[in-house]
Design goal:
The chain is α+β, with helices and mostly antiparallel strands. The chain has two domains: about 65-170, Rieske Iron-sulfur Protein, CATH 2.102.10; about 205-440, Naphthalene 1,2-dioxygenase Alpha Subunit, Chain A, domain 1 (Alpha-Beta Complex). Helices cover about 30% and strands about 20% of the residues. It is built from 15 helices and 23 strands. It has helices at about 25-30, 50-60, 145-150, 185-190, 190-200, 220-230, 235-240, 240-245, 275-280, 285-295, 295-300, 305, 355-370, 375-390, 430-440; strands at about 35, 40, 65-70, 75-85, 85-90, 100, 115-120, 125, 130, 140, 165-170, 170-175, 205-210, 215, 260-265, 265-270, 315-320, 320-325, 330-335, 340-350, 400, 410, 420. Strands 13, 14, 15, 16, 17, 18, 19, 20, 22 and 23 form a ten-stranded antiparallel beta sheet that branches. It has a four-stranded antiparallel beta sheet with strand order 6-5-4-7, with no helix packed on it. Helix 2 (about 50-60) crosses helix 15 (about 430-440). The longest helix is centred in the last third of the chain and has 16 residues, at about 375-390. The chain is globular, with a radius of gyration of 23 Å. The two termini are about 35 Å apart. It binds FE2/S2 (inorganic) cluster and fe (ii) ion. Fe (ii) ion (FE2) binds near residues 234, 235, 238 and 239.
Length: about 450
Amino acid sequence: MNTYNTARNTSSCSGDRAGHTPETDARTLRALVDFERGRLDRRVYWDDAIYRLELERIFARSWLFVAHESQVALPGDFLTTYMGEDGVIVTRAPDGRIHVFLNSCTHRGNKLCLAEVGNRRRFTCNYHGWTFGPDGALTGMPQEEVYRRTCPGFDKSEMGIRNARVESYKGLVFATFDDEAESLEQFLGDYRWYLDVLLDNDPDGTEFLPGNIKSRMNCNWKYPAENFCGDSYHAAWTHNSGAVALFGHGVAKSNQENSYQVNMNGHGWQFGLDMIGNAMVLGEQDIVDYLKENNARFAARLGKLRSRMVGAISSANIFPHTSFLPGQNTFRTWHPKGPNGIELHTWVLVNRSAPDALKNMYLKGVMRSFSPTGVLEMDDGDNWENATQTNQGVVTRQQKLHYGLGLDSRVAHDELRGSIHLRKYNDSNQLAFYRKWMDLMCDDKGANAWRE
Ligand code: FES
Ligand SMILES: [Fe+2]
């Protein structure tokens, strides 16, 4: 008998409200992925109990990308975003420190900050007027004397908003609500060596261009994350008609010997050396020329090998849900909104020192390709939404999915780091993503940490 809860029938869930059901014990979870043969149970894409466990064990425990430092460059600058489904405020205090705290008033839980971005020294709740500082501390309350008179022992310092731990890597700000989590340095590990291709090919570093596209898709968050992590196989098929529409020719089918998938700690990066394909997708020859003209400079900074990755055809995902296309420079986070939905936040990342005209070209190119009206985003979104929906069928769900391409492709390499797999048509990064996912999902340390 199939006892799985369906995403459409959450009220019948038999577990407690944190999502612990017999269906999500470690043994049942382990059976969802066959890493030896490369098979995946479709349940991971639609089951509400699994989804709620993901919020608890993945999103409330991992380091999550929350902002680029350039978005909160000045004291008082703030933005609102999510960590899992928890709303948070990211803001820079007068002392320059970046704080991330829950976007929920500690009085009655009202959403504290309704704006998406801005500059404020303090945040005042719309309901009863409690005011919080840039570190989440409660600093003011209307008619405070009433509390002093009638509420013995009331201590304002106990009513500050819960902060996340915050650490940065070369402009990218991450936060976690897990006080016991490893450091960001350990979490990223050797992935930092690859991130430098994007973040450190120029001494002045990077910035996000102003503005942020927010859109919704009716798909499970893992589809786009695993796609960017390593699904280069889809590109020549899914995006062929889009490429014809944009450029007058289709996507080249290539699976060259000098292309790789690398992964570590669930993070993935797939790339082909010397193929400035991503930058070409922007449809701006000036960008391709900029990358070619500056290649020697990149090589001096990053070494020859990594200079061949700048702008190359590639895609990447920082576990769990932050993806980017190096060279094309779209940078995005797939915020989970239930098992069947995401809110996608998209930015354009550029070298701070790049000429303004070039930055504008990046912006336009990303709009044309990877935005809600972008040709390539529509290609992908349609597939992810359809896959999420069909996986829920009561018969359909019984047949496992295939993730077994290139299981024997692991190679050694003198310079590349992490687990290295030859050729980009490969499921190795996606399986590595699910290995990390499985480790976290089955780890019940602090299972009670997010429950009252
Ligand atoms: S809910 Fe925020 S002040 Fe009352
Ligand atoms: Fe795609």
